[in-house]
Amino acid sequence: MSVDIQTLLDQVDSREGELIDLLCKLISFETPAPPARNTKDAQAFIAGYLQNLGFSIDTWDMYPGDPNVVGVLKGAGDCAYKSVIINGHVDVAEVSPDEAWETGPFTPIVRDGLVIGRGAADMKGGLAGALFALMLLREHNIPLPGDITFESVIGEEVGEAGTLDCCKRGYMADLALVVDTSDLHIQGQGGVITGWITVKSPQSFHDGTRRQMIHAGGGLVGASAIEKMMKVIQGLQDLERHWAVTKSYPGCPLGSTTINPAVIEGGRHAAFIADECRLWITVHYYPNENHEAVTQEIEAHIRNVANADPWLKDNHPTFRWGGKSMIEERGEIFPALELDPSHAGIKLLASKYEMVTGEPAILGVSSTVSDGGWFGHEGIPAAVFGPGKLRHAHSINEQVSIQQLKDYTKIMIDFIAAWSSTPR
Ligand SMILES: [Zn+2]
Questions:
Q1: Is Hydrolase one of the keywords (predicted)?
Q2: What b-and-e string marks burial along 1-20, b requiring 16 or more CB atoms within 10 Å of the CB?
Q3: CATH number for the domain harbouring residue 306
């Protein structure tokens, strides 16, 4: 027998302790990435939780010790009603041994209306709220005619995109909500891609040949890859400045399209002219751009820089973009996500936010990136919507407000019930 939604919302208050316990339980699983490969127990717990609610479970190892978990609750409506993916990552930001936590990062504490522990904001709070919402909906037999897919993914903190793997495995829906840190704002995001630019000489020269290589009449055509990389870096700075004055996107600070020369490696020994130099860059771009086009712009610009140099024109820099893991291959992609405020699901979510909090919903652009972009990239309308503040994510004594966690849980209850009952 079904009860009305208000009863469930009241239960979020009266059963607050259970919600906090669930969050503390999730925090107590030590899942920092790096080092990663440590989410097996947390994922088994979440899979068990979903299974108890009637979800069928699909789980597979993305890496040894790091399985993805997807639970599917088939709606009774035979695909005639709106479906939703609820997505969250179970890995948390790394912890270094010298950090001064009140207790251990994985020994959560509850005080002053806060839960404190690694992942409280990013993003075990979002996972706990969404799981608790589903539990209450199922416990009270609220009709859910549309399909509900819950993705608990790994690797987000190190660019391993468990979410991309879920998309590739065929999980689709009419809307995806990524329950990552957004302070209950409903957000899209800009994108990030990392890349390696390599300048490589076809020959290696001894240090003693430098005089011939750089002075009048020396006669030896060669170059230091490190010195030639200076031109590449200068070119990247010119392009970055050009983007800053020519590109913009509503809701993003001007100049957000940055190219950071983050890491440089090169040369082999003081006795040689550097014959190779590798530059690791991080590129940020706006929500309405994509990494394919942005990286083409960079390559075209650097080709022009190279063509203006007598040695680089014959020894063009090479590029390796993105990657599936910062740990395994030192590369990652977080595609951009454009929020569509006119999408029926986004409008419904905003209205539920307003009903629960009594405040107008805030739609905007996240100042960071999450797995949300993979849904946009795969053509699934999506938003980032979760509890916790970004300034607490990855910080010492990471925390989430219990009031906000409860509001979040209520909004999710109300939204899921309404969306799942909306005809397609
Ligand atoms: Zn996150």
A1: yes
A2: eeeebeebbebbeebeeebb
A3: 3.30.70.360
pLDDT of residue 102: 87
Residue 191 pLDDT level (bands cut at 50, 70, 90): very high
CATH number, position 342: 3.40.630.10
State how many domains the chain has: 2
User: If you measure from the C-alpha of residue 76 to the centroid of ligand 1, how many angstroms do you get, rounded to a whole number?
Assistant: 32
Question: Do 399 and 261 sit in the same domain of this protein?
Answer: no
Question: Do 195 and 137 have their domain in common?
Answer: no
SS3 361: coil
Report how far ligand 1's centroid is from the alpha carbon of 288 (Å).
21
Residue 327 lies in a domain: no
> Is position 332 within any domain?
no
**Residue at token pair 């950071």:** 260
Residue 73 token pair = 């609750």
Same-domain check for residues 353 and 399? yes
| Structural domain span for residue 240 | 191-321
104 token code pair: 């251990």
Within-domain flag for 265: yes
Å from CA of 79 to ligand 1 middle: 31
In tens, the pLDDT along 149-185 reads: 999 999 999 999 899 999 999 999 999 999 999 999 9
pLDDT for res 298: 98
Are 291 and 365 found together in one domain? no
Question: Which residues lie below 8 Å from residue 66, measured CB to CB, with a gap of 6+?
Answer: 36, 37, 38, 39, 40, 91, 154, 155, 160, 162
Q: 154 C-alpha to center of ligand 1: Å?
A: 11
Q: Is the peptide bond before 317 cis (omega within 30 degrees of 0)?
A: no
Q: What is the Å distance from ligand 1's center to 124 Cα?
A: 9
Task: Give me the pLDDT at residue 1, please.
Answer: 39
Q: Does the pLDDT value for residue 269 go beyond 90?
A: yes
Strands 318-321 and 191-200: antiparallel
The pTM assigned to this predicted structure is 0.95
pLDDT score at 78: 82
| φ, ψ of residue 31 in degrees (nearest 5) | -125, 40
Exposure pattern of 218-239 as b/e (b: 16+ CB <10 Å)?
eeeebbbbbebbebbbebbeeb
Looking at the annotation, which residues are catalytic?
A: 91, 156
Q: What is the mean pLDDT of residues 367-386?
A: 96
62 and 156 assigned to the same domain: yes
Interatomic CA distance for residues 206 and 222, integer angstroms: 11
Give the integer Cα–Cα distance in Å for 171 and 166. 6
